[in-house]
Amino acid sequence: MSRSLPDADVAVLGLGAMGSMTAWQLAAAGARVIGFEQYGLVHDRGGAGGESRLFRAAYHEGAEYVPLLRRARDMWIELTQASGRPLFTPTGCLSIGRPDIEPMRNVRASVDEHGLDHEILAPDELTARFPQHAPADGEIGILDLAGGMLRPELAVLTAAERAREAGARLMDRTVVSAVEPDSGGVTIVTDERTWRVRRAVVTTGAWVRELVPQAAVVPKPIVLTWFAPSDVEDYRPDVFPAFIRDTDGMHLFGCPVMDGVSVKAGVADVWDPLRDPRDLTRDLPEPALEPVTAAVRRLLPGLHPEPIRHGVYMDGYTADRTALAGPVPGAPQLIVLAGFSGHGFKMAPVFGSIAADLALHDGTSFDIARMDPARFSRAA
């Protein structure tokens, strides 16, 4: 095959949240796009699962993310309206914690520096307004009025459909065994055939090191659990916002009743990394769920503390919990989006746009310098 006649302008490897959004944005920009997914479209072996995910603009991870989050929210609303599907549900997002801890300082900086609509709830106001929570002494609430809930599986499907409508060729159940960048483009090897493209975007999440071995990312489980409330009416989206809290070393997050029967909650930073993404265990024994049941028992007393079900997903984590977004060092034809460390889904539309700009125009208007994939090699 002549290298002057590539099969596509850009290939997208991995069609989960980041990949489906990237394929959509590339195709919408007029690029010839091919996409590869080793599983079926909308699967449960990556990070985009669990029926609902939090959206928050007042960010525990730092105020520097707010411009990305604002644009992502606009894109979520646009995609919701254009598709007619309930991808984004505005509920607000309630952050709870003592005002002097770093996550709450970052939330306060987010609303102050960027003028986000919010409410500050003193301890007595927090208890009166949201009695479903059991705050510890001195904890306050910051209600981010731009927050809400997202539907991850439906969002991935919608973005993939939009990409196809714009002309993208998306191939599921197609395993990519090698990605070989060179000065003229990128060769992609699958069981079916070899493909040639000008550039490729790798968005394979926890699997990224199989195609980009130098990516400083480790796979880690994300465990989500659902609990039965004593009164469902107290946990509906109009009275119980999405929430995230840090109390005495416990990082608990959750969302209102979205399925009619249960409240979702989860804890972070208690699950060991995986040696290989294929080692993911999907069915956990009851003792393994004790960290989240203990947190729910203490902090959400209106829920029965034994989960009615759980789901295990995974994401790729970096050492500094900051994503890799940009060209692979030494291979500018290859762009990577990975290592979102459990907090990237909410920003998937804007990162799809960023990846498209990087692939087509060699740059983006967003400040993503801190996400440079080369930072770990420089540190080494």
TrEMBL record:
Alphabetic keyword roster: FAD, Flavoprotein, Oxidoreductase
Keyword hit for Hydrolase: no
UniProt domain FAD dependent oxidoreductase: residue ranges: 9-358
GO molecular function, one term: N-methyl-L-amino-acid oxidase activity
Gene3D superfamilies in UniProt: D-Amino Acid Oxidase, subunit A, domain 2, FAD/NAD(P)-binding domain
Cofactor needs: FAD
Entry EC no(s): 1.5.3.2
EC top class, as a word: oxidoreductase
Transmembrane segments: none
SUPFAM superfamilies with a match to the protein in the record: FAD-linked reductases, C-terminal domain (SSF54373), FAD/NAD(P)-binding domain (SSF51905)
Entries under PANTHER family matching the protein: FAD DEPENDENT OXIDOREDUCTASE DOMAIN-CONTAINING PROTEIN (PTHR10961:SF7), PEROXISOMAL SARCOSINE OXIDASE (PTHR10961)
The protein, known as: N-methyl-L-tryptophan oxidase
